[in-house]
């Protein structure tokens, strides 16, 4: 099962990006998944820059959980839930480079 850290956004256009994530809910969901329980994760609407208040995805437990995101290693408590951590460093691709 793979899930993006982005689904745990409160509201993206904030001054401090780290505070834009609902880390408590992320910790709760990952903890429940690791215990074999299904969870409901929020849906983030990037067009309106907010969570869809009434909508959730049900995520079922799995033997492998892949959590990805640009700040997924920022919080020590989130890092402590991980059995393995992989960081991929890539070259920045600018939009004009992709159009060539």
Describe this structure in words.
The protein is globular, with a radius of gyration of 15 Å. It has one domain: Rossmann fold, CATH 3.40.50.300. Helix content is 22%, strand content 23%. The protein has 100 residues and is α+β, with helices and mostly antiparallel strands. Pfam families: PRK.
Short précis:
This protein has 100 residues and is of the alpha+beta class.
CATH topology call: Rossmann fold
- Beta-strand content estimate: 15-25%
N-to-C series of helices and strands: EHEEEHH
Based on CA inertia axes, which overall geometry fits? Answer: globular
Largest sheet: 2 strands, parallel
How many independent structural domains? 1
Give the number of DSSP strands: 4
Helix segment tally: 3
Rg over C-alpha atoms, rounded to the nearest angstrom:
15 Å
| Mean pLDDT across all amino acids | 78
> What is the CATH class?
Alpha Beta
Distinctive features:
100 residues, alpha+beta, Rossmann fold, two-stranded antiparallel ribbon
Layout of helices and strands:
Blueprint: E1 2-4, H1 23-34, E2 39-45, E3 50-59, E4 66-68, H2 76-81, H3 95-98
Parallel strand pairs: 1-4
Antiparallel strand pairs: 2-3
């Amino acid at each position: 099962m793979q899930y993006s850290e982005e689904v745990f956004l409160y509201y993206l256009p904030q001054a401090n990006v780290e505070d834009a994530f609902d880390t408590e809910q992320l910790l709760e969901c990952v903890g429940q998944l690791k215990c074999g329980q299904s969870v409901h994760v929020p849906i983030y609407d990037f067009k309106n820059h907010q969570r869809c208040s009434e909508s959730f995805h049900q995520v079922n437990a799995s033997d492998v959980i892949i959590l990805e995101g640009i700040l997924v290693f920022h919080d020590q408590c989130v890092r402590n839930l991980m059995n393995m951590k992989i960081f991929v460093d890539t070259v920045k691709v600018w939009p004009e480079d992709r159009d060539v």
